[in-house]
Write a structure and sequence with these properties.
Rossmann fold, alpha/beta, single chain, five-stranded parallel beta sheet
């Protein structure tokens, strides 16, 4: 029997310009589950939803994440799967979704919590690493 709180965990993000904040998040997720699956938002998501240009192509971001010992599997996910966590659940069959604590209490995540109750999945909200972000890195590089 596992000592960890969950068997299969899932988190999703762009993971562009991989930095220590990303690593902290993934390590925290892995501490709570036996198997960590990471959805990597595809380039269409970055362009169409975030209105940004990815610095690193989506297939390379997947390779980087799959090389980490704290990640058991990373796969590209499209806009629909990123936006609708039930689609992610149907694809990956996780016990827990790890998400940033800035989403807690939002209409979207309150709805997702109710949907997850019907399938027995949970959401764990994790804090972001202060002082580091991809946007800040991009701004530093511009200077």
């Amino acid at each position: 029997m596992s000592e960890k709180k969950y068997h299969v965990g899932y988190t999703c993000g762009v993971f562009d310009l991989f930095h220590v904040g990303h690593l902290n998040l993934l390590e925290r997720c892995k501490e709570m589950c036996d198997i960590l699956i990471v959805g990597v938002c595809d380039d269409d998501y970055v362009h169409d939803i975030k209105n940004k240009e990815p610095m690193i192509p989506d297939t390379d971001r997947v390779r980087i994440l799959n090389a980490l010992k704290c990640v058991d599997k990373a796969e590209l996910v499209d806009i629909a799967t990123t936006d609708d966590k039930m689609l992610a659940y149907e694809r990956f069959h996780f016990d827990v979704l790890f998400s940033g604590d800035d989403w807690k209490g939002s209409e979207r995540y309150l709805r997702t919590e109710k949907q997850f109750e019907t399938v027995g999945a949970k959401i764990e909200y994790l804090p972001y690493t202060k002082g580091v972000s991809t946007t800040e890195l991009k701004n530093k590089m511009k200077k």
